[in-house]
Amino acid sequence: MHSRALAQAKVTLDRACADTAAAYASFVGDRTSPSVGVRLTIVANEGEAEVVCSILRSEGIRCGYRTTDVSAESGLNFGGWREVLVDAADESQARELLAAIK
């Protein structure tokens, strides 16, 4: 009986996590989405990419990031250079905002 309750709790938690992940991806956009494809800048690591994207998203600009072509890592770590990407339609506004915060 105990293992059945744990199994049900796990299924419920897995569904909740999937729903949360889908809602988050819908809100911020898929970081590697082909529609988010204009390179705005390159930053030193994932933390910096998150900060830049947070600022852009606060202004309504969809943003994502990915490891750069020059990164030696596999993409599974926090460190390593990241390309910050935005929609082409938002590029000029994003560049103005980025220039204002640098």
The 3D shape can be described as elongated
Structural class call reads: alpha+beta
CATH topology of the largest domain: Alpha-Beta Plaits
Query: In which range does the helix fraction lie?
Result: 40-55%
What portion of the residues fall into strands of 2 or more residues? 15-25%
Which parts are unreliable, with pLDDT below 50 for 5 consecutive residues or more? Answer: 19-24
In the residues, how many domains can be counted?
A: 2
Q: Supply the CATH class of the largest domain.
A: Alpha Beta
Order of helices and strands: HEHEEH
- Level-2 CATH architecture of the largest domain: 2-Layer Sandwich
Largest sheet: 3 strands, antiparallel
CATH superfamily of the largest domain: UreE, C-terminal domain
Number of helices: 3
Number of DSSP-assigned strands: 3
Read across the widest sheet, the strand sequence of neighbours is 1-3-2
Report the mean per-residue pLDDT as an integer.
74
End-to-end distance, in Å? 59 Å
Rounded radius of gyration (Å): 17 Å
Explain what you see.
With 102 residues, the protein is an alpha+beta fold. It folds into two domains: 1-30; 31-101, 2-Layer Sandwich (Alpha-Beta Plaits). 50% of the residues lie in helices and 21% in strands. The protein has three helices and three strands; from the N terminus they run αβαββα. The protein has helices at residues 2-28, 46-58, 91-101, and strands at residues 38-45, 63-67, 79-86. It is elongated and about 60 Å long.
